[in-house]
Each structure stands twice: as C-alpha cells, then as structure tokens.
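FAQ
Q: What does a multi-component entry look like?
A: The components come first, one per line:
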Amino acid sequence: MNDKQILMETKSLSKNFGNLAAVRDVSLQVYEGEIHAIIGPNGAGKTTFLNLLSGELPASSGALYFDGSEVTDWRPDRLARAGMGRSFQHSSVFEQLSVRENVRLAAQTQFPNSFGLFRPAESYADVGRRVEEVFGEVALEWSSGARAGEISHGEQRQLEIAMLLALSPKLMLLDEPTSGMSRNETLELIELLRRISERHTLVLVEHDMDVVFQLADRITVLVNGSVLASGPPAAVREDVAVRTAYLGTQ
Amino acid sequence: MRPVTIIAAIVVAAMLVAIPLFHNAFLTAHATRILIYVIFAMSLDLLVGYCGMVSLGHAAFFGIAAYTTALLSAKAGIANILIGLPLSMLAAAAGALVIGLLTLRTSGIYFIMATLAFAQMLHFLVNDSDFFGGSDGILLLTRFRASVGNTVLLDLGNATTRYYTALVATSVAFAGLALLVRSPFGRILQGLKSNEQRMRALGYPVARYKLGCFVIGGTLAGLAGHLYATLTSLADPSILDWLHSAQVLMMVIIGGLGTLIGSAIGAFLLIELIDQSAELTDHWKLIVGVVVIAVTMFGRGGLVGLASLLRTSVFGARASA
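Then the predicted structure of the entire assembly, as tokens:
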C-alpha cells in the first residue's frame, strides 16, 4: 500500500484540556482509497482526535496535512470546502428541514453559481441532478419529503452519509456511524460503506468490532490518547498489547 | 397555493387598496402605521424566524434610519424621499454591519444581551445629546416628497399618498422577502437555524451568512424607520428604546416565527390590541401581557400555527397535506 498517495497525515498531533492530555503525540497517515478505522476503549480520545482532524477543535501542538497542504489552523468550513466531509457521533441532520432539503443544502455547496438571492432554490437544475444522483447512490428508500427529525435514528445516520456524499469529499470522517443502529441497519450500512469506499477514502471511528474488521484496510488503536498499534487488521488482531489493553475487555 | 388562500389574498389586497377611499383621516393614518410595523416585524422575522438569531436590539436600525431622515431634514434641509430613503437605509445597513460584526461572535442568550446593549447605547446617545435633540427628539418641519428637479412626483404631505407609499413599500418588502427565503441563500439561513455546526461541517462560512442576514434585516428595519419618520414627522428616543425592540419581537412571536405573513398579522393584532386595551384601561399592559402569554403557551407556532392546527383538527389530515 506504500505506493499509494498519502491523503492526510498528522505529525505529533496533541490536544490538552487543562492538565488532561486527551490526544498525545499522534502521528499517522491515511492513504488515498483506504478505509482507516480508529478504535479504542471509551475515553481513549477517538472523537477528540476526529475533532482535531476536522478542525472542530484547535490542536495544542503538532501538525495536520491534508491533500498536500498544511491545514493545522484551518476552521471546519474551510476544511470542508477543501474536501473533508465529516459526520458526528450523535446524528446531526437538519431536523426541521425535509430529507431532500438536507441533501440539497449539502449538494448546493458544490455549485458556486447556485447562491442567488431571489431564484427559488429548487430551480437550480444542476443541484437537483446531484441530489438525485446521491439518492441513487445511497439507494435507500426514503420519502424524501419527510422531515429529517421524524425519520428513524438509523435513517438519520444514513441521511448523514448521503449528505457527505453530496459534498463529493476527498475524505470522509465518520464518527461511530453505526451507533444506535439495529443489527439489520448495521449490515446495510456496512454494505453502503463498502460501496462508497470504492470511490472515497474513509476514516472511521467505530466501537463495533464486527464493522471494523469487516471493513477496515488499516486500523489504528488509540489508548489514553496515544497510538498503541497501527496496521492491517490481521496484524492488529495479533498484537498482544492490543488484546490485553482493549480487545480482551470486550 | 390553494384557492382559499388566493381568494383571501385578493380580498385582503382589495381592502388594503380601498382604505383611503373611506376618507377617514384617522383610519388612513392608523393603517399607514400598521403597514410600517408590518415591514419592521417581517425584517425581524428574517433574523429570528428564519436564521434563529433572537435580537432584542432590532429597534436600533429602525431608529438609525428615522434619525438619519430627521437629521437630513433638520440639518441639511433635505426632504426628498429619493435621497432620504436610500441614505437612511444605507445608514441602517452600516449600523447593522457594525453591530452585527460585534455581536455575532456570541449566540443564544449572550446575543440577546449584546444586541440589547448596543441598542440601549444608541438610545442613551441620542437621549443625552443636543445634536440629536435630546429627549424631545427631532421634529421634521417640512413634509417629505419625491421630486426630480422641480417636478414633484409624490407629495407626502398628503395622507393618502403616505398611505399608498407605505403600501407599495410593504408589498415590495413582502415579495422580496418571500423570494429571499425560498432562494438558496434563504435555505442556508434555515439550515443555520436548525444546526449551525452541521452547516459549518458542510463548508458554509457561517459567520458571513449570519452577518448577511443581519444586515438585510437591519436594512429593511431602516425602510420602516424612514417611513415612520416621514409619517409622524418625528424621531424621538422612544423608538430606540429596548421596549420598542421587545414590541416588534412580540409581533413576530404572536404571528408565528418564520412565516412572514404571520409577522404581518402579528403587527396588525398587537397594534390593535395595544390601542384597544389602552382605551379601556390604564392597566392595558396587563391585558397585552396575558394575551401574549396565552398565544405563546397554547399556540407554539403563533397564530399561524394555531390556524393550521385548527384546520387539521376540523378538516382532518386531508387539509394538512
């Protein structure tokens, strides 16, 4: 895999909250086209790390590179425009708006000429086509007119992924995409992520080991904010330190 | 639109056009005042109802425009609406830009307090300075008109002309806002109200859109403020008071947030409620208070929400589709 391009890289990235070192000295590479899972016990700093990657939190020290530029100080909206799309641990959709409008708002960002003040939002044909494309790609049976706050939790999580797809991101950061999902929904989501990964690079924070070992090309284990192990699933599974620190407690 | 809505709109429009034909000076002036508050309330609804920015300082922009109008007249002898209107709206926009830049770093309760504080600062500035006429305010000695060269196009000395000017301004503001909230820009505002963090993660420069919304709302409040000054021939500190901001916020809440038409109805009803109850008793604020509490408690979507609730329960699910 080393012949692949590095899409994102962190160098000694750290985050302190007062005296608490939530993320310590994390250096890792995400290669183009891979699914990179980040696992670890509760409180290991996984979500904090993801928040550093997406710019939600400023890093205390270290550097972040994305798509050839140093982006350490970039804010979330700028990173998003540069091609980094993320989902949140608690499903984060526009509850008052329709399912379709949720995806449309995401798709709209890809068409800079679609920001008029007086033309109806629906009249922009290229945005509409992109929305239809995404609905086709996700292939989920939604009534797109329903309000996003009224569909089930599992559907909201799928909707979030549809919104990310509409951004055509270079990298998708997913924070526990299967949390709160039923077994069936999880299986459907694994299929969806597999399909998406054919054309996208994914970083996945996940606690469901079935999901991780089925999907990931590489796994990084975080414990107490530090990298304990990083590598292909088989190697990580064999790692004794990991087993005692984390997998053994499952 | 359903036929009922269209018929109702035609009837209301016809009534609005017909009001001066009654040759009732009080009625015409009263209706002009209501129209001005319809613009004011709709401009705040854009902020509160669509973008989720609850401002308690919206009267600042109304006041800036009214004082600009009065100063133009009193200090520079300019009483041409073609100059006064754009200048006072520009002044309101500039005020909104500055106050917006300073307050939009905050949100929620802090934003409410920050906007309130800035509006109160303006209130005390004009109240305590001779330049702005102190607590008496500034009287407009000449009536505004619209003129090009020596040709007078509109003479706002005429009450009927004032009414129709306000009616046209209200219609244009309503149509413009109705288009705006359906546009991509308007949708972005609604996304911001729903989930700001999500909007940022989608790549929207959130602060810029909120500021844009704040300035557009402030500019339209300026339109209302300018018309108000030309109607009453007065700009006094009470229009910058925070109670004035609270009043217009009540109009929006009573009518129903994020509906535009609700703000229009809310403006009409609150003015009527205040006027009628003030005639009944000195304790009219008690009556107004009880009504506002009742509407907010029992009809969470304001009167527009209450109406659609009634429609659904009377006609069943068919009507709600």
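Q: Is there any commentary attached?
A: Sometimes. For this entry: Strands of chain A lie at 6-17, 20-31, 35-39, 61-66, 69-70, 84-86, 171-175, 201-205, 218-223, 226-231.
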